[in-house]
Design a protein that fits this description.
Layout (H helix, E strand, L loop, with lengths): L1 E4 L4 H13 L4 E5 L19 E5 L5 H11 L3 E4 L6 H6 L1 H24 L3 H6 L1 E7 L24 H20 L3 E6 L1 E3 L8 H11 L3 E4 L5 E6 H14 L5 E4 L4 E3 H15 L12 E4 L14 H7 L7 H14 L1 H7 L2 H11 L4
Parallel strand pairs: 1-2, 1-4, 2-3, 4-5, 5-6, 6-10, 7-9, 8-12
Antiparallel strand pairs: 9-11
Helix pairs in contact: 1-8, 2-4, 4-6, 7-9, 9-11
């Protein structure tokens, strides 16, 4: 049995689906079901006794303590987080509460549980904390990619809150001996991605005939990681990672945002062309850049390949085609998640024309 927190969100739900497709080990899935948490991501697991869903918050110490005592997990994978930079700029307190205070309370409950295990179970137990490359700050055009020893320089309330959570996890290993693992991943994309992030937003807006908003000049560079590759990396780190270590997980796919949008438009032109015969590029609209927008992220994923033999299976070209096709095939899911609250948010962030 493992406990997954945040397992109804984008990466968490993909991980739960991937885990249960690969093995029969049950999952207790704890998720607060905030705006980006969606049980619709897990519809295929309805009635599956291997999946136990619990609606709750990682900051609820009594609930977490009860779940640990009841289910006795051998490992915890912590995805639970507020994760959108734009939202953190408008409302940073939620990020402090979930990503810092919530992680602290989760660690406290886990430390007490782990301390009560016998010696063999203590040695086998793992707490895997899923984090982001954004904690490292921004890179210049010719800088080498982020390695695990790169200095933390977070530039947004989101990345600062994740950096703080990383430090707490590290401290609980060095102070209390808790066998922790940390992964810092690059930008994920793929199925079940909430359409506030670049790739699903562009797909959704393109098909709806709406503007495709590009921040600034669109030359911000990101390293793109297909979500199932991320899931396989987490499984590998959980199985073979050294306690106390950090592993950077990237796709080796650096792309400027504008190039990503052009690629999406070209795929949509082929798979679902506009009825007026115009290219989707015609919908691109440049909007004011967000405050403190990091110029470039890039991950050096050499350590996880050297030590654990992991590397991504998907190229950007194969992963992005799979992603577009998934959204075309799952318009009902998109319709369910793009609620009135979502439309209000997009209008606030990108302008009334959205």
């Amino acid at each position: 049995m493992i406990l997954v927190t945040g397992g109804a969100g984008f990466i968490g739900s993909n991980f739960v689906l991937d885990w249960l497709a690969a093995a029969d080990e049950p999952v207790v899935n704890l998720d607060a079901l905030t705006y980006a948490g969606n049980l619709g991501n897990l519809t295929s697991l309805q009635g599956d006794p291997r999946h136990i869903f619990v609606h709750g918050d990682i900051g609820d110490c009594a609930l977490v303590t009860s779940l640990l005592a009841q289910h006795r997990p051998r490992a915890i994978v912590n995805f639970a987080a507020e994760s959108h930079v734009d939202r953190s700029i408008h409302g940073p307190e939620d990020f402090v509460q979930t990503n810092i205070v919530g992680t602290f309370r989760l660690l406290e409950a886990v430390r007490a549980y782990w301390g009560g295990l016998d010696v063999a179970d203590q040695a086998a137990f793992r707490f895997l904390h899923v984090s982001t490359d954004e904690v490292y700050g921004s890179l210049a055009k010719d800088d080498p990619p982020f390695s695990e020893t790169h200095r933390y320089e977070p530039n947004s309330p989101y990345s600062a809150s994740k950096a703080a959570s990383d430090h707490l996890v590290r401290a609980y290993h060095h102070t209390y001996g808790l066998p922790v693992l940390t992964t810092n991943c690059s930008n994920n994309y793929g199925p079940y991605h909430f359409p506030e992030k670049l790739i699903p937003l562009v797909i959704h807006n393109a098909l709806a005939g709406k503007p495709l908003p590009i921040y600034g000049d669109g030359q911000q560079v990101r390293d793109w990681l297909y979500v199932t590759d991320h899931c396989s990396a987490i499984r590998r780190v959980l199985a073979g990672g050294r306690p106390g270590e950090t592993y950077n997980v990237g796709g080796w796919n650096e792309k400027p945002n504008l190039d990503v949008v052009h690629t999406l438009c070209a795929i949509l032109d082929e798979l679902s062309p506009r009825t007026d015969g115009q290219p989707y590029r015609a919908q691109i609209t440049y909007v004011t850049d967000r405050p403190g927008h990091d110029r470039r992220y890039a991950i050096d994923a050499g350590k996880i390949e050297r030590e654990l033999g992991w590397k991504p299976a998907e190229t950007f070209e194969t992963g992005i085609c799979k992603t577009v096709q998934w959204y075309l095939d799952n318009q009902a899911w998109v319709g369910n998640v793009t609620s009135g609250a979502y439309r209000d948010w997009v209008g606030k962030q990108y302008g009334a024309q959205q």
